Amino acid sequence: MNSLKRTPLYAWHVAHGARMVDFGGWEMPLQYAGIIEEHRATRERAGLFDVSHMGEIDVHGQGALPFLQYLLTRNIDPLPKGHMKLSLILNESGGIKDDVTVYARGENSYRLVTNAANKEKILAWLLKVRDEKQWGKLDIKDVSEEVGKIDLQGPAARAILGDLGVVGGGEIPYYRFIETKLISVPALISRSGYTGEDGFEIYVSGDDVQSVWEKILEVGKPYGVMPVGLGARDTLRLEAGMMLYGNELEESVNPFEVVYEWVVDMGKEFLGKDALVEIKKQGVSRTLVGFIVDGRGIARHGYAVVKNGIKLGEVTSGTFSPTLGQAIGMAFIPVSMVREGEQIEIDVRGHTVSAHVVRLPFYRRKRG
Amino acid sequence: MAKQNPRDRKYTPEHEWVLEKGDGHVVVGITDFAQEQLTDIVYVELPEIGRKVERGDQLAVVESVKSVSDVYAPVSGVVVEVNRRLESDPGLINRDAFGEGWIAVLEMNNSREWLLLMEAGDYEAMIAGEGK
Q1: What confidence score (pLDDT) does residue A166 get?
Q2: Which among A85, A124, A98 has a CA at the least distance from the CA of A24?
Q3: CB distance A231–B39 less than 8 Å?
Q4: pLDDT > 50? residue B132
């Protein structure tokens, strides 16, 4: 049985020696040359990521603005054309249904970019809210099948985009985007990403993904660009202190537990706000923190944070940081223990390994 | 692309290789297929010299960026030597799983167990089945 979904670049990945893995129902490249090498290439030069598995849902028509203003935790009134924001979508109890980016493409025309595994859930949620609230003729369209997504990340990303002849490409401000042509095909290019580096997220038609991908590798060659798999995408985002749905974020987690106050605009009305007001009044009992392992071993997703044999919390993500040369991670711990430098203990397969709490992110790029 | 599995040694279904050194000593490591599945190896927990192990006991632990994996004793015996270089350079296993990346030397105490190990050809047939 092989029901895994594939991106338009599947054959390219296989032909270029990628190790393919099942990632949330998608057959995706885990690595090409090796996770650490790809990680370093992205930090020092540039990395190219096929993230065509991610979901894109276009919302447009009369009422799109108030509709999304109600669904998203972030204030998007106003969100001028060409601007984007990170936002959450919550359930009625204030739990996180997904973290998304919203792109304002024109008057009452928006694109939501969802996590791959959450796309169907979010689509159904949007349709349900639209129909219940009688938002009427609003057009909600899942365009994930037609849209390919490539991320170009790293200090050389800007120069590579410039060499590709994208007019004004390198000058897009952070968290803004343009709709333009890239090697003569229509493209939406935003200055954003999921690695902690400068870079771009590029959306093109699925039919054009491969030619754009190959062109970027060709033009980026003198800069040392490399294709990068999901393995390094995970180590890069974790070093940058960025959360991953399914690890840090889920429906049973509220924004205050993961220090996402800044993505929640309590000054406006939105779905889930009533619950958040209540949660804020009660206060949260656990918080997400970063930690560095002091001994040997890697604390991984699901490992217990313990003290005197009692479980106090849980590791949400953990890996070896290629930049720090140490094992790092994020974990939920009781609010009372949240102090920089606080010693915690983690049960690593039956052995207790000590770690200490640190301020996120683990890595911050030097801005030139 | 995984390297050829050398014909001079035997294999286990858990992806260890075992090479006879003569005088009842065997060298143990993990296969190139295994290192490729693991991705970049960043820690290796070696056994203590003198430790007695039964076939199937945990012998070492190999941690990669992506996952963690136990290395099992392919035969029963006593640990007589470990590859200390792996402590400072665990990537040796990625670069040369069948050579410089060896993990430990065991003194076998039950030579009949040698017969339970797989030939390279059988091991390859097994991983070909696992790959799909």
Answers
A1: 85
A2: A98
A3: yes
A4: no
pLDDT at B37 (0 to 100): 93
Q: Do B39 and A34 touch (CB under 8 A)?
A: yes
Question: Residue A222's closest CA among A147, A164, A135?
Answer: A164
pLDDT tens, residue by residue, A243-292: 999 999 999 999 999 999 999 999 999 999 999 999 999 999 999 999 99
Q: Are residues A321 and A277 in contact, defined by beta-carbon separation less than 8 angstroms? A: no
The alpha-carbon gap from A352 to the nearest alpha carbon of chain B, in Å, equals 15
- Chain B residues whose beta carbon lies within 8 Å of the beta carbon of residue A298: 42-43, 63, 68
CB distance A35–B42 less than 8 Å? Answer: no
- The shortest C-alpha distance from A318 to chain B (Å) reads 9
ipTM: 0.88
Q: Three-state SS for A190?
A: strand
Total CB pairs under 8 A between chain A and B: 42
**Which fold is adopted by the domain A285-358?**
Elongation Factor Tu (Ef-tu); domain 3 (2.40.30)
Contact A34 B40 (CB under 8 A): yes
Which CATH entry fits the domain spanning A10-50+145-239: 3.30.1360.120, 2.60.120.10, 3.40.50.150, 3.40.50.720?
Answer: 3.30.1360.120
Identify which of A31, A231, A320 has the shortest CB distance to residue B42: A320
Q: What is the mean pLDDT of chain B?
A: 94
Give contacts of B65 with chain A, Cβ < 8 Å: 35-36, 231, 235, 319-320, 322
pLDDT attached to residue B2: 62
Q: Is A156 left (phi over 0), alpha (psi -120 to 50) or beta?
A: alpha
Q: For residue B51, what are the domain limits?
A: 10-126
* A55-140 CATH fold: Alpha-Beta Plaits (3.30.70)
pLDDT digits (tens, 9 = 90+) for B81-110: 999 999 999 999 999 999 999 999 999 998
d(CA A323, CA A362): 9
Judge: B39–A35 Cβ closer than 8 Å, yes or no. Answer: yes
At residue B44, the pLDDT reads 96
Report yes or no: A302 at the B interface, CB cutoff 8 Å.
no
Closest by Cβ to B43, choosing from A34, A231, A297: A297
Cα distance between residue A3 and residue A8, in whole Å: 15
State mean pLDDT over A8-26.
Answer: 96
pLDDT over 70, % of chain A? 99
| Residue spans of beta strands (DSSP E) within A177-325 | 177-182, 185-190, 199-205, 226-228, 286-293, 304-307, 310-321
Nearest to B77 by CA among B13, B22, B7, B24: B24
Distance CA A343, CA A308 (A): 13
| pLDDT tens string B33-42 | 999 999 999 9
For residue A38, give both structure tokens.
């790809």
